[in-house]
């Protein structure tokens, strides 16, 4: 139901708003399923001849003018140059569909859900949108199809509705604004939208709103920083919006400040080795898109784009390492397992390789890498032979720069892919709904293939530090990584891993040290300290336990999981009413899986444990026995036995 604050009359089944606010029902009442033409004006009904003897009543007072009503429309002949720079035109059929939906009061917020507009929106949260969608109503970029379609087809009805929406928002936000109205992605997209609208329509209210937003965006960033530590991808949008506003209006000092801010943010978002600060390789793809937008803005502004192209090149070498042998990104942090889009990294040889699934381009050289963004990636090789080893794994530690909202509490967690199967994975983002119990859980440590300790005072700021990372991959040798989890208070955990490339086996050792708790009362409280080691199976992977050796199953592929040390295996499966063992499929889709775990009680008098887990991929019917003893781990494959000492930080 469309609502208006003014008096309404009804004629010919159409709602007509008296106070100058054009009704959406009237605007859409022309051709069926089309918003291409304004509605026809109903013909007036002839009145009867007036009686001169009857006094004529005074006409009613006209309604008070709407303070947010725009002036008479001067139809623009073309979009402003900054519109195409900031928001390149979509395909005509997409533009038309979105304009029609907007005229019907429907806003498609993508992953954020669907928002419904009244004649004059109140901008409040709705049940059909998640937290992200509710906040994105303040971005205003969703309204641009009205302007674009209206200008492209010279349809003033669409442009008028676009202006209405912007004027309403400006009027409703003249005074106080909540934090999220200006912050993050929402303020940046709105600033860019206002610049496009102001340049196209050349109206003082829109120009002033664009410049006001630009000042807010520029002033939100500390001046004179060469590297924006603590920034994220949304700050690029905010500074580019300010750059566009000041470049268009010829304010050179503010333009230069906005560009300096933009470069500092880009250097803060991308670390020196190309890794992102988001804790989520999927956001590296989004950052690449934003960097291309920055370069386009620099070109429109007539200023040099460096160092943005160089930073973009560094990003490709990181993303390439985060891609599995099936040419899909690993689901770390808020990343969904998916292939790269067709335009990612055009012109870069590494990006070409992963984007085309190895059909063109050249793969990177290293098969073991550690990035300051808190990532370790290792693989058997870039060109696995059919039936041969194709193992890929990832480990996570604390980023050298502050974490963002897209990183999970996934320190020391492992993902593991082999024989064409993802065996252990990250649960993904689910959806951006702050009130969702599942969203909260999948970001927690318990949702990852790592360790937790109960009944201790945890300090997450202590982080998970990389102690060492080394590899003899150039000689076909092993990878060694050790990570120190310092977050569990009185219990320290060092996780060391070794990928034995020659025999295609993976060894994980958790060295656990629990300090002695002084005092009888404290000892009683600490007696319940329990370390739990978890392995998050991906959807579709089954499990069976024979003689304390768990075998994971997927088609004719197998993964044997051997262990030594205390604690027996336990398997929990996903069930309704619980957040445990759910993974993200598509956005907002949850898929059931299972969690393999073992729990180890720790003595209050002090304790030291060594937990060994060995992963051996194989085919069904293939025998690959494993022995764990004082000499280390012995794996026998195809009649060849290799003994590897337990990986350790010393």
Q: What is the radius of gyration?
A: 30 Å
| CATH topology descriptor of the domain at 369-644 | Beta-galactosidase, Chain A, domain 5
| N-to-C span | 70 Å
What's the CATH architecture of the domain at 369-644?
A: Distorted Sandwich
Overall pLDDT: 89
- The helix/strand class is alpha+beta
Number of helices: 16
Assign a percent range to the helix content: 25-40%
> What's the total count of β strands?
26
Shape: elongated
Low-pLDDT runs: 1-54
CATH class of the domain at 369-644: Mainly Beta
Percent range for β-strand residues: 15-25%
Major sheet details: 8 strands, antiparallel
Strand order of the largest sheet: 11-12-13-14-23-18-17-16
Task: Describe the secondary structure blueprint for this structure.
Blueprint (H helix, E strand, L loop, with lengths): L7 E4 L2 E4 L6 H4 L53 H6 L5 H12 L2 E3 L5 E3 L14 H6 L7 H9 L3 H17 L6 H4 L1 H18 L2 H16 L13 H17 L2 H18 L11 H21 L6 H14 L27 H7 L12 E4 L3 E5 L12 E5 L17 E5 L2 E4 L12 H6 L8 E3 L10 E8 L7 E7 L5 E10 L4 E10 L5 H7 L3 E7 L5 E5 L2 E6 L2 E8 L5 E4 L8 E3 L5 E3 L1 E8 L5 E13 L6 E4 L2 E6 L2 E5 L6
Antiparallel strand pairs: 1-2, 3-4, 5-6, 6-7, 7-8, 8-9, 10-15, 11-12, 12-13, 13-14, 14-23, 15-22, 16-17, 17-18, 18-23, 19-22, 20-21, 24-25, 25-26
